[in-house]
Amino acid sequence: MTDPETVAAEVIEATGTCSLEEVCQVCRVEAEWVAALVEHGVISPAGNARAEWTFARVSLIRVGKAKRLQHDLGLNVPGLALALDLLDEIEALRVRLRAYGET
Length: 103
What we know:
Layout lengths: L3 H11 L2 E3 H8 L3 H9 L14 E3 L1 H16 L3 H26 L1
């Protein structure tokens, strides 16, 4: 069986974007769940209609984080959106703190 992280790395290296179907396949999630992530601003697709959606390759990483948070903490989609936003903010603050310490 293929390791999903290996597949994700191959997809990320091979293309700059991926379709909804590729996100679902690589991350082993349902399209409805991905649509809920889009609705709550966790990831943002290009394209208007769901059939046209394409996602930046970094979306695979974000979907993977969301899946782990849901599995590990039992968060619903709004909770996932909040948790991921807070994690992003923490990382941004760490970057600023490291930059501050280097000057």
